[in-house]
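call fold target=TetR/AcrR family transcriptional regulator
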Amino acid sequence: MPREVRERQMLDAAVEVFARRGYRAASMDEIAELAGASKPLVYLYLNSKEDLFGACVRREADALKASVRAAIEPDASADDRLWHGLRAFFTHTAEHPDGWAVLSCQARTNGEPAAPVADELRQEMVGLVTRLIAATAAEGAGGDGSAALAGHEASGLAHALVGAAESLAGWANTRTGAVPSAKETAATLMNVAWVGLENLRGGRRWTHAARP
């Protein structure tokens, strides 16, 4: 069997075990058995449990980024780009729940070398959404500049939206009852995000001035 195929099998097995057991409780014996390989061969190809975990996180992060990027058409309107990006995100996390569990939970709680990869993924997603939010405001800007957003506003909204998307993906993937589709989950978040952005485009903002 080609090494590339064998390594993919090992990574598939490792993602499943890390998602189910957690990094610390996962054993190389179980990963090797699930992959149909000997433990010495796993060590030969992927060095150590820590290196194997890091390889899993990098692979899952790259796959998620690729799915989201492929779904966004550069020439589409800002709301279409945001919609298709969200839908691709929720589709990917629903189709790869073990990979998402490793990325969203295990990578962030087990330090080096995985945490920086997960943080980089999050920052890339935040950067992408920040640009979409800024483009949305620019598309709706009138002569009075009412739709303009300060840089910190676009960045803050993007962090909030990405955090909400991560939370919703975890919620959708762990439900025991009826499971919403990726389209439904994306629409849930889009209804909140886009209505708010439409208000900002029209110069309408919440204020606490009249409140005690």
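return ok
The CA atoms of residues 103 and 118 lie 6 Å apart. Confidence is low (pLDDT under 50) at residues 142-146.
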